[in-house]
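Following up on my earlier thread - several people asked me to post the actual chain instead of describing it. Fair enough. Here it is, all 196 residues.
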Amino acid sequence: MRRLPLFPLPVVLFPGALMPLHVFEPRYRQMMAWCLEGDREFGLIYHDPDRFGPFDAVPGRVGCIAHILKFQPLPDGRSLILTEGTERFRIEDGIESEAPYYEALVDEYPDLDGARRGIVQRRRTTIALFHRVLAEVLNHKGGVPAIDMASETAFQLAQAIRIDPAWQQELLETRGESARLDRLDFLLRAVLEEEV
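Reply from S.P.:
Thanks for posting it. Predicted structure:
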């Protein structure tokens, strides 16, 4: 378990994904300063205030650790940062502290299924569906995103699909790669059927 500052945003960060962020609120400016002095990490957690109201660091919520790759301060105190998702976490307990930003005690959120047998073929199936959607539905003729089949494929594909963040959050919380690929297959097949 570790103590982690939290940045609630109406977006989902996946492990391995890059995400640029514009930091302008004073409390998150302070959080960035704290992160840069330490391990350069914070927890990005999906929260849409228009849907869910004020944020609360309740136990059980799942997010992704964001590692700051680049930090560009702006003259007025705001900053632009580039983050990369590293691993998923689950909030175990919120922390009340003197810090103006949210903090929580978090723990790792690993997959439950350890089955790796046949996973490469399973990944190929989902990648082929993704390429069909690009070609047949979106008439995408340019280069396609590079997918590394040697590592988690579902998160790589999910970051390329523009869809409701609540659906992305459900995918982030799914605790097995086969189950995540099943969710993606269902979505991609539905898109293809709509075009028939």
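The longest strand covers residues 79-95. That should answer part of your original question.
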